[in-house]
Amino acid sequence: MNKLALFVVVITGLMLIYAGQDLPPFGDPDTAMYQHNMTQYFIENSESESGVSNIVTALLANYRGYDTLGETTVIFTAGMAVMLLLRRRER
Amino acid sequence: MSRIQESVIIRTVVRIMVPFIELFALYVIIHGAGGPGGGFQGGVIFGAAIILYAMIYGIAEGKKRVSDALDRILASTGLTIYAGTGLLCILFGGMFLQYGAVPLIPDDPAKVSKYLIDLVEIGIGTTVAAVMISLFFDVSPPESEEGELPDYEGAD
Question: CA–CA separation, B114 vs B109, rounded Å?
Answer without folding.
Answer: 9
